[in-house]
Amino acid sequence: MAGPDYPAELSALDKALTSIEAVVDPAAKKVEIAELSEQVAAPDLWDDVDNAQRITSRLSALQSEIDRVADLRSRLDDLSVLIELATEESDAASLAEAEAELSSLQHAVESLEVRTLLSGEYDPREALVTIRSEAGGVDAADFAAMLLRMYLRWAERHGYPAEVYDTSYAEEAGIKSATFQVKAPYAYGTLSVEQGTHRLVRISPFDNQGRRQTSFAGVEVLPVTEEADHIDIPEADIRIDVFRSSGPGGQSVNTTDSAVRITHLPTGIVVSCQNEKSQLQNKAAALRVLQARLLEKARRDREAEMNALKGDGGNSWGSQMRSYVLHPYQMVKDLRTDFEVSSPDAVFDGELDGFIESGIRWRMTEKV
């Protein structure tokens, strides 16, 4: 069997990487890195903790991005040299090494290419994800818990910190809902393609007759708000209730009423947080979630106005987007992109990158 057409493959990689470099613009990012580095060196930086965290996080993200591009360029240069030497000397072992590196490099460049497609207003932000059980009773609640673990495992695989703010447990098994934050640059742009209704088909472990059950869970993804968003929430517009945190089955977790529920009276939006140790921390976290929901509502209102002006019916983001089938066969399929795999266990263990990347590419074609 013939090996790869190395000149053509290397030329294609060079072209793709050059295109990525034009979008990333390392020179401009190095200027911003220099400016941020000066701010980080200021002795009073940590007098304002939130601002310090924002600056250091941005600095780290920028440095990581240009390092990633530089590393790929270095790998491509090294691969060209390896192929040239191996070909001249007919070194089969080195050619096998080159073929493996070529495949690895192609995958890395494709993944970075997808990142350059994240150009939306809020795409660079961290993400707030809420999962809710929908139709399907106890199976839906169990499915929602499976999705929560799936996304937390995905974050863990990538080294992204994730914090669960609130979990509402179902009576028999699983969860009614859960909200968590993924604290990584571009988490919102990346995970926003996961928004929609997810469907699970399986033999229900909760049906003593072993019948097949279809259940549904909804995923909502919001960008984390920043100071520049300027969402003013008058105190008169919110009602704050405190209650005792509880775990599965209703066991008391805290001995004090530290959990916080905030109701935004004008919109009816309700958020809660019971993960932190103090009432003050829970209130701050709940307010962050409320800010994100209000920001998203404002964005959707603007989008609805634009769609009304354009005379179209908007998009179908809230519709069913992925199907997880465990019986009578094994398959997970994205209903928008037709991307599918035959290993549901791997997907539920956080192997989501294929779905996310195809979703981002699909979204770009839909916009076009």
Automatic annotation (TrEMBL):
PROSITE patterns, per database record? RF_PROK_I
The record's listing under Pfam families reads: PCRF (PF03462), RF-1 (PF00472)
Q: Which UniProt keywords apply?
A: Coiled coil, Cytoplasm, Methylation, Protein biosynthesis
Where is it localised? Answer: Cytoplasm
Role according to the record: Peptide chain release factor 2 directs the termination of translation in response to the peptide chain termination codons UGA and UAA.
Q: Which HAMAP family match?
A: Rel_fac_2
Record-given protein name:
Peptide chain release factor 2
Please give the Gene Ontology molecular function terms for this protein.
Answer: translation release factor activity, codon specific
Family the UniProt entry places it in: Belongs to the prokaryotic/mitochondrial release factor family.
Using the record, list the residue span of the signal peptide; answer none if the entry has no such feature.
none
Q: Is Protein biosynthesis given among the entry's keywords? A: yes
Name the coiled-coil region(s).
69-115
What are the Prokaryotic-type class I peptide chain release factors domain coordinates in residue numbering?
244-260
Name positions with the PTM N5-methylglutamine.
Q251
Output a single Gene Ontology CC term carried by this record: cytoplasm
PANTHER family documented for this protein: CLASS I PEPTIDE CHAIN RELEASE FACTOR, PEPTIDE CHAIN RELEASE FACTOR 2
The entry's comment on post-translational modification says:
Methylated by PrmC. Methylation increases the termination efficiency of RF2.
